[in-house]
Specification:
Layout: H1 3-10, E1 28-29, E2 56-66, E3 69-83, H2 90-99, E4 112-122, E5 132-136, H3 145-152, E6 155-157, E7 171-173, E8 183-187, E9 196-198, H4 202-206, H5 209-226, E10 234-239, H6 241-254, E11 262-266, H7 287-302, H8 313-334, H9 340-354, H10 358-363, H11 372-376, E12 383-385, E13 393-395, H12 408-427, H13 467-476, E14 481-487, H14 495-503, E15 515-520, H15 530-548
Parallel strand pairs: 5-8, 5-10, 10-11, 11-14, 14-15
Antiparallel strand pairs: 1-2, 2-3, 3-4, 4-8, 4-9, 6-7, 12-13
Helix pairs in contact: 3-12, 5-6, 6-13, 7-8, 7-14, 8-9
């Protein structure tokens, strides 16, 4: 798999200095250990080694104005401790220790994660029927700074659209906060943000598809108990790789007797077989080029690189989707049996939709490698278009390169998000003194991509696909509703790939009515485009109200 694809999924941006609508008031705090504690070497019949982490909590209050109405809230910033998958059973721990003859390492705590969260509870709202939504970004290896500070938290960082945002950064009241519809819990994945991992084989314990789903399952069930929310309508909101985590959670939580009312996906990627790679390295796998084409066409439309037919963007993309799934797909499937005349005809139509020269498309064998479109569309201007959001432009670093080497949107807004969050969480939520905030970490070399879908019996040696998990969850809970959101200008998780995978969700026809789709003229981080943020908020809030009975 192309490492650039993984890097693009992890790359997301930064924050600004807070200007709170109302200063929050710290109420209680428990300090976070600066580093894992070291247990004394146990003696015979000694107490088991102490855990590395303890839960923490810092409480505060504040308010946000949404739709002209002031919403007072209680905030909690803290951590919950979870354990690596497979070691939660004491018998398993003891069996492993005895099998190694009491190796000294076996007396040390197994892998643990201290998972950070920032939760917001609306004041005066009865918990029993108040919806609660658990939100996270993806990567894998990304913290949840982006959804927190760009989309739905009570404060939002101001960034420029399609341009680089420079300091001084500014936070403003977020009039699109989801607190008008639901209580919110923003969660940092193990090792990211203020979350930490420790213990024997800690990377193996948490850095993997199934390990990650298990950690979040433990977190959510603990949170429901700690804050008395078992009876609340429950929602999961995942972005990017977080959609894979979210779909897996829908079933994993059911196994713990937690039914979700709704699963909300933003920039979804549930089947990694749809991710494009270098065609020279993976010949014969053509579907990724098919599902990426409409995004390339939307980008060429946006930058006026093609002759625009009559109608709006959506009607144009309908034409491109039809071509992609018929003539284009059939041409790619023919491979070397494609005639020269057919090849020329397809290249001409591709050029009309993408703005790339026919000669270039013939050289690529009609297959546009990941990163190549971003590099080539405006190559005569030495300009690279964005990957996370193709509306953004930046100077090409190496005009002789084959593919784009960076993402202009990430470069434009990341520093703003991270800076603003560092100020907000420390000054307003009173959390994190002396602790480094890690907006993202590199986990690709350590990540275990094997996934065990329902009924498989063992993890599969294949790119992960959680469509079966979601399908089983929907069959077992026919009231589970799914909302799919995406941006037309997102190359990293193309909107049509999300449509395609959901079309292949193995559920009965009647359950397909439980799925709804919303698309926006924005990129991967839909909320970075303010008009799209407004629409996203309204759509998600409406979805929660309709499916929870909340008013």
């Amino acid at each position: 798999m192309n490492a650039a694809i993984l890097a693009a999924l992890a790359a997301q941006a930064a924050t600004a200095q807070p200007v709170a609508e109302k200063p929050v008031k710290p109420e209680a705090a428990v300090s976070v250990p600066a580093s894992p504690s070291k247990a004394d070497k146990p003696k015979a019949d000694a107490e088991p080694a102490k855990p590395f982490f303890v839960p923490t909590e810092v409480r505060s209050t504040g308010s946000v104005t949404v739709g002209g109405r002031r919403i007072a809230y209680r905030a909690v910033a803290g951590t919950l401790v979870v354990h690596s998958k497979g070691w939660e059973d004491t018998d398993a721990i003891e069996a492993a220790a005895s099998s190694k003859g009491g190796d000294e390492d076996e007396d040390k705590p197994k892998a643990e994660a201290s998972m950070f969260y920032a939760a917001y509870f609306r004041e005066g709202a009865p918990a029993v029927d108040r919806p609660i939504t658990f939100l996270f970004n993806g990567g894998p290896g990304s913290s949840t700074v982006w959804l927190h500070m760009g989309a739905f938290g009570p404060q939002r960082v101001q960034t420029l659209d399609e341009r680089h945002t420079s300091a001084p950064y500014q936070l403003i009241n977020n009039d699109q906060s989801l607190l008008d519809a639901s209580d919110l819990v923003f969660i940092d994945a193990p090792g990211t943000g203020f979350s930490r991992i420790a213990g024997k084989d800690k990377e193996k314990g948490f850095y993997g598809v199934d390990q990650d789903i298990d950690a979040f399952t433990q977190f959510i069930t603990q949170f429901l108990s700690k804050y008395g929310r078992w009876s609340s309508p429950k929602y999961v909101f995942g972005e990017s790789y977080g959609t894979m985590r979210g779909a897996g959670l829908a079933l994993s939580l059911q196994d713990k007797d937690v039914d979700l009312s709704g699963l909300i996906l933003l920039s979804d990627i549930l089947n990694w077989d749809l991710m494009p790679d270098d065609p020279q390295l993976n010949p014969g796998v053509d579907l990724p080029y098919v599902v990426s084409l409409p995004t390339y066409a939307a980008t060429a439309w946006y930058h006026n690189r093609i002759a625009r037919p009559a109608g709006d963007l959506q009607s144009f993309l309908g034409q491109v989707e039809a071509f992609a799934t018929t003539d284009y797909a059939q041409a790619l499937m023919k491979g070397n049996e494609l005639t020269s005349a057919e090849r020329d005809r397809i290249a001409g139509q591709l050029s009309a939709y993408t703005g790339l020269p026919v000669a270039y498309l013939l050289k690529t064998n009609l297959r546009i490698e990941y990163g190549a479109f971003q590099k080539e569309l405006l190559s005569e201007q030495a300009t690279t278009v964005g990957t996370l959001d193709t509306r953004f432009l930046g100077a090409t670093i190496d005009p002789l390169s084959k593919v784009a080497s960076y993402d202009p949107q990430s470069a434009a807004i990341s520093a703003a998000y991270v800076a603003a969050y560092n100020g907000y969480v420390r000054d307003r939520l009173r959390y994190g003194e002396g602790i480094e905030f890690k907006s993202g970490i590199s986990v690709y070399e350590d990540w275990d991509y094997k996934h065990e879908p329902p009924g498989a019996g063992d993890p599969l040696i294949a790119l992960p696909n959680v469509l079966t998990d979601l399908a089983v969850a929907m069959k077992q809970n026919p009231d589970l509703k799914v909302m799919v959101n995406g941006g037309y200008y997102d190359v990293s998780t193309p909107y049509f790939a999300g449509k395609y995978e959901m079309r292949h969700l193995p559920v009965p026809a009647n359950l397909l009515n439980n799925i709804e789709y919303r698309y926006y003229e924005a990129g991967h981080m839909v909320y970075a485009h303010h008009p799209s943020l407004v629409a996203l908020h309204d759509n998600v809030a409406d979805f929660i109200r309709r499916t929870s009975g909340a008013h």
